[in-house]
Design the sequence.
């Protein structure tokens, strides 16, 4: 029986009294926010208190609407309320500009934001208030910021929803190489065949996938151009050098940190390419085509896992870390917080989202029964675990930065993988080692290609909209640069830009390097944990809980890590390099 998530704890439906009452309340709270004159810190504190109420209700309404849409992109009510809630949220821009201006002037006049916030009962938000004061130098006027937010609702926001809908409804004409029969299957089901043990199946699925994109390529290109054009324009108007600087600012991450990470990655790219060449030899090939990136290895590589097996595997291994982590996973399983299987109308990929008002989270999967799907489930439960820690804080401290968002999820992957490696032997162990290397290679080489691609798109979009051919060529160039001699240059994936939803959010540009950051930071954290498991648990939970309350560098320093030092990132990469050597030693 299909496992679908239950959303009744959020709302029982769009037409229920609870949903309707909250939906009527949010514009009233916005009006109240916009009518407060911020002339003293007492006024500022009053605005913060109203903002807490608004954020909780808006988050609940938006979560319900977006989760309904994620599993049924044809749902008209979901589309309608996503649009209406975004329109209401746009009206908070006036208040944010006025509050930021007041805070900036307070600092300019020698005021201590932290002390004043503590005095007025909002001390827990001192970092957010200081960050808002800094943001004022990048803000336009009240009218301009409000207009920009309103226009994004009919601009980038709508283009993003279009891409979601196009991909969720996309079908592929797949010819089974065994029977010769052609089947019409959804794009997610087709992409899951990349993990099949049969090379002919993987190639046929790859060819069917690429053949499907021309159905939506022009629409996706229009969406990409519109979103990237809007981001370029607003970044310029807000006095950022480029969209990357805006992303780093929003994440509380220094450019020095990003440079240190990429310095270490650049120095180690070839080790990942050598792993791919070793995998090609293992599969009996001269060079590895893109469609064999996820090819399983070992005699048991065709094993499929049931969802029940996945749940058991994860809960047992989470228990090795802490009873609390195990309990949160069981709660998600037992209370139907997870939507498991692919189906038509459901968005691609996987994600986890939290709902502060009810202190819960929901996970979307496209589970295909592969070992990698189990690891993906562990990854998303890591996000859920992070959410349950951070939701102990006030709601305005729950929006932790993107790079740290990918740390807890990767750490949970490592808990499951490393615990299993201690018990598995022979072929089963080889399969798990290779699966971990697949993941590592994705977040180093593939993420690097996506980062390079997005930088090149932003640059090219400054003077013209990009054609489908240009987007394809930029993607291929980025893949060739990142993968080097690790992949067959004639068999890459030119349409990766069309399938990945991360490119289609104006509010989250460069949602690629955070995966590399999170994966490598998790490696560093795991080394600390492995050295002293008992002491680490409490420190780790505190680290997750405060992740929205300070800049990335400072939060990492609570665990003794300097993320601006390339030596830290190099040491984290050493963990993966040792695993690659182990895999190469098993090559036969």
Sequence:
């Amino acid at each position: 029986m299909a496992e679908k998530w239950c959303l009744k704890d959020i709302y029982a439906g769009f037409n229920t009294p609870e949903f309707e009452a909250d939906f009527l309340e949010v514009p009233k709270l916005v009006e109240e926010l916009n009518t407060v004159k911020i002339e003293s810190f007492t006024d500022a504190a009053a605005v913060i208190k109203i903002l807490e109420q608004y954020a909780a209700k808006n988050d609940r309404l938006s979560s319900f609407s977006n989760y309904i849409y994620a599993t049924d992109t044809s749902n008209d009510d979901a589309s309608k309320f996503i649009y209406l809630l975004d329109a209401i949220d746009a009206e908070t821009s006036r208040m944010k500009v006025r509050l930021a201006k007041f805070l900036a002037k307070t600092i300019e006049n020698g005021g201590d934001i932290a002390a004043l916030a503590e005095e007025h009962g909002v001390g827990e938000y001192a970092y957010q208030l200081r960050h808002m004061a800094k943001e004022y130098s990048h803000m336009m006027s009240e009218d301009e910021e409000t207009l920009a937010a309103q226009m994004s609702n009919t601009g980038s926001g709508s283009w993003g929803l279009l891409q979601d809908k196009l991909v969720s409804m996309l079908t592929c004409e797949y010819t089974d190489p065994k029977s010769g029969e052609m089947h019409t299957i959804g794009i997610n089901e087709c992409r899951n065949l990349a993990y099949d043990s049969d090379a002919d199946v993987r190639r046929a699925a790859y060819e069917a996938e690429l053949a499907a994109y021309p159905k939506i390529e022009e629409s996706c290109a229009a969406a990409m151009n519109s979103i990237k054009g809007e981001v370029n324009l607003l970044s310029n108007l807000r006095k950022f050098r480029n969209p990357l600087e805006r992303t780093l600012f929003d994440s509380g991450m220094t450019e020095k940190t990003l440079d240190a990470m990429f310095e270490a990655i650049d120095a180690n790219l070839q080790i990942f390419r050598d792993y791919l060449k070793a995998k090609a030899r293992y599969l009996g090939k001269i060079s590895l085509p893109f469609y064999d990136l996820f090819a399983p290895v070992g005699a048991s590589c065709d094993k499929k896992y049931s969802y029940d097996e996945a749940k058991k595997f994860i809960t047992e291994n989470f228990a090795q870390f802490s009873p609390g982590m195990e309990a949160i996973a069981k709660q998600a399983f037992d209370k139907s917080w997870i939507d498991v299987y692919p189906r038509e109308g459901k968005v691609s990929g996987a994600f986890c989202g939290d709902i502060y008002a009810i202190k819960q989270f929901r996970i979307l999967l496209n589970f295909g029964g592969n070992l990698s799907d189990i690891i993906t489930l562990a990854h998303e439960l890591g996000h859920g675990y992070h959410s349950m820690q951070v939701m102990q804080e006030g709601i305005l401290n729950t929006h932790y930065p993107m790079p740290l968002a990918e740390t807890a999820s990767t750490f949970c992957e490592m808990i499951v993988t490393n615990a299993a490696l201690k018990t598995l032997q022979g072929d089963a162990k080889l399969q798990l080692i290779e699966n971990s290397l697949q993941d590592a290679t994705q977040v180093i080489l593939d993420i690097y290609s996506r980062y390079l691609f997005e930088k090149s798109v932003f640059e090219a979009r400054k003077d013209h909209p990009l054609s489908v051919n240009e987007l394809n060529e930029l993607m291929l160039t980025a893949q060739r640069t990142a993968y080097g001699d690790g992949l067959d240059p004639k068999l890459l994936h030119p349409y990766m830009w069309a399938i990945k939803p991360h490119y289609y959010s104006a509010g989250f540009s460069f949602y690629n390097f955070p995966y590399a950051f999170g994966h490598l930071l998790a490696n560093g954290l795991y080394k600390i944990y492995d050295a002293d498991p008992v002491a680490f648990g409490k420190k780790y939970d505190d680290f997750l809980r405060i992740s929205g309350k300070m800049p990335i560098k400072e939060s990492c320093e609570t665990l003794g890590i300097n993320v601006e030092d390339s030596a830290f990132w190099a040491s984290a990469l050493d963990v993966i390099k040792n695993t690659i050597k182990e895999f190469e030693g098993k090559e036969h």
Notes: DSSP finds 25 helices and five strands in the chain. The chain has a mean pLDDT of 93.
